[in-house]
Amino acid sequence: MTRKNKTTTLNGSERGPDGDPDCTEVLEDDSRSILMGIISQLGKGTDLHRVTLPTFVLEPRSMLERITDFMSHPELLLEATTLADPLERFIKIVGFFLSGWHIKPKGVKKPYNPVLGEMFRSRWKYANGTEGIYIAEQVSHHPPISAYHYASPENGIMIQGNLRPKPKFLGNSAATLMEGSSTITLEGWDDEQYFITMPNVYARGILFGKMVMELGDSCSIKCPKNGFGFFSGQYNTVIGKIKDEKTGQVLKEISGAWTNELFINSPKSSSKKQSLFDVKRSSIHPMIVEQEQHQENHESRRLWSKVTDAIKQKDQDTATNEKMLLEDKQRSDAKERQKQGTSFQPQFFELNNITNEYILKNIIQSNDR
Fold first, then answer.
1. E-strand spans in 113-156?
2. Is 68 left (phi over 0), alpha (psi -120 to 50) or beta?
3. Which of 338, 325, 307 is CA-nearest to residue 142?
4. Contact 75, 287 (CB under 8 A)
5. pTM of structure
């Protein structure tokens, strides 16, 4: 693959010499011909979970780890816990959610599909002397479901979510429909909850043109307790509104680009827009992950280490072989369970039969969604 020379911003994301915030990529002819051969066998709307993709389109990390991108700017979330005004809290939660989407690999890269029972653990240390901890587990393979839980007990913050990505082939693009949702709970404000749905992800330029990842369709944040809602529905830009859901009154308008800067202003106001989040001025908070040799065998970085090493060394044959070994092991385990008449049981999460979502074991959540 050929790439533009790139520079690294303060936050670690890649930008080309021409200030390319979209991290576009142009494939070499041999790589594109491999993709063309696969695509020629697909029909529009095909579920890509059952298609084996070449390793050069893989981002060398698991989806379980990629979810942590949304915890990259904790200062917004921590500040929300200190604000007495419900609307100001809601605005900080919106900014926190929107801040994680600028982090993406060069061109079109797809994280590893986690194998059943795979897990990822990490933590963060914050300037106020507190910590945040995260655990995720692949709780289902068909359909694929990633369950995750973040907690910062000293700050009274909990995030619980299920991700059910559904990739589809659309011609010159592929879409990942980001089904599932997240719930942010602020315990210090009487367990105030924010229910979040995500935008869909599109890979453009698969057959011709520059390959780039873009966001589209709609996303939302709702806080039933305070009656606020945020809705955005534009393609690859943020144009959203914060409303009082009881009256329909628009309280704030948010605009900008996921990969650049986001602005907020009052509707019909003549005053200058204020910055809500600026990618160029931000820095990704460092995440702490146990060294691979100390991880359990089914933890993401250790589990995928041979594939990751091969991809980084541009050894696609070895990467493909190691990936196939993991996938064959998963199929073999499934056949053994079927033979013994048993079913897979997640280690850390359990299904809530009321919400039909997986939650961390021994965690009780309210059902006021």
1. 119-125, 131-140, 145-152
2. alpha
3. 338
4. no
5. 0.84
